[in-house]
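By way of example, we now present a protein record of this kind:
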Amino acid sequence: MNRGKHSRRDFLKTGGAVLASGMAVPYFVSGVTARGAEAKSDKLLVASIGVGGRGTDIGLQAADLGNVIACADVNLEHAGKFSKKVGKKGGNCQVYQDYRKVLDRKDVQAVTIGTPDHWHIKVALDAMSAGKDVYCEKPLTLTIDESRIICDAVKRSDRVFQVGTQQRSEFGRAFLEAVAIVRSGRLGKKIEATAMIGHAPKPERFAKATPPKDLDWDFWLGQAPTVAYCPNRADFNFRWWFDYSGGQVTDWGAHHTDISLWALGGETTGPSEIEGKGEFPLGRELTRDYLLGKKSIADLPNGYNVAQAFDCKITLPNGNTIQLSSSGNEDILFVGEKGRIAVNRGGIRGKFVKALKASPADKKWLDEEVVKLYRGMRLKGHMANFFDCVKTRAMPISDVFTHCVAINTCHSVNIAMLLGRKLRWSQEQYAFLNDDEANQMTRRKQRAPYAVEG
């Protein structure tokens, strides 16, 4: 398989035009229900895979727009609760523990994926192979190599694929306005962005426990190493273990790095240099050696191991920079020689913004720029954008290619902190330059039969 040189030309070729011309007939159906009976319906038939926590949220969003006819979760208790919630909306959602049985159903046309991060790519690849369109939560990948695999697979596919970076579609269009203003040059030619995403939890150690009776723990572990169950590895807290995620750097970082790169013109190039420092609960060297394969999971204390606090600098090829920090109040601050703005999920603010919106001509300009940025699609929410694109076969607003640039930037931050040195990245080569250890950390050893292949 091609090692994945994702150029701007490749990115554009995979965009809306080729999707519109080369894809199959839209996957909305009329007159068929999940049971095959005749009915007057034109709703998309959806299955939700991974329905604990955030997976429930996106699954219920899909249920508001289509028919969620099946769900799967390795914890049957999660699946049962989700099915009942769909039932309260008038749906009939069949429960499975093994997601592959959902993908075998010919009536399922699209899936939402809300599993822990280390399962995203395996499930997404299987879903596309089964002919399903995909909405998958962020961060999409566990490693940089998984990003290469999924980008290559989507290029070969005719499937619509939306990534769950909702800041591109929601929160009163505040982030879209910020991106439009920064990209316009109104703040200046060179921009410094500071993305503040908060700390990970304090270090803790945990005792082993017996898995809940409804949880298939080995299946939950998937590609990750075999280890005894403890509640703090599962559910929400999987984020704080490198075997399953990348901590706050990839969790919240996926959102704010995505918006920062988009605004600063790095959404297809990625970074050129990455450097920074972080505080690791198990120590930087032990964590690094584990991820390099020099230590086994048995050598690690049973506790959170991702960076708790961090401060990193990301330099783009165009000279713009992003400071990714665990400090602050979840703002993104954009500073140029002509002005500054701040944005978070509460809105966009600053004297520059206030003055701009006070001018009818400038306000009209901003409205038009937001429409262009959203490619003329209706702005009704992130899941709605996915449903619209399934119908039109256009590329969704949060595509796999720009997302992988953003999440690879976050993975690179973790790698730079763990190695304790500045790294140089080449998007053209899809590799770190002159650094074998850094490139070794772009992939992980995976357990069969759950390994991601590509």
Remarks:
- Residues 1-40 have pLDDT under 50 and may be disordered.
- The CA atoms of residues 51 and 57 lie 8 Å apart.
- The chain has 16 helices and 15 strands.
- The longest helix spans residues 400-419.
